[in-house]
Fold:
Amino acid sequence: QKEKVRTLKFEELNLSPEIMSGLHDVHYSELTELQEQVIPAILEGNDALIKASNGTSKIGSFVVPALETINKEEDAEGPSVLILTPNPEESNEIDELVWAMGYHAQIECASIDLDGETEEQKKALQSGIEVVVGNPGSLIDIANDLRFVFRNLKLLVIDSADEMLSLNLEGKIKDIIKRVLCDPQTVIYSEKLNEEV
Structure:
């Protein structure tokens, strides 16, 4: 008989009660293999380059520590977490998960994506939200218009880095990073780990 490998439960991560309530709401109880490798490392404040394919397990692996980071903070000015992702579908999926998991901690998020209404997105970016999820092109256009800078960013997540490179978004990502006036923890996800990434 094959031995069942014990999976880590979210209760064992010492997350704050508000974040645990959010995890219960979205039926997160046991960590996937990817989450088990990644979440503790991000919670410890390490920079990381992670090989992972798309899916909810990957999104959860950065959303959970991102929310915990924010929840532990005293009121910071402006966004604490910036998540860059190549397409509007994923941006909205991440946005929805942040809202659902961060509900009890009253963590607010906005998606600055290619499908959104520019004026609404500008208002959202200026409203003091804690999490910004964005497609690099839309985000840099709006940040340039508003002369917006990230002064208190704690965590920068670059999602699907290989896909971003294939879409020629490297320049836009670098332009966004120039607007980060602090030294955040940086986590990069990529399906392929090639020289470029």
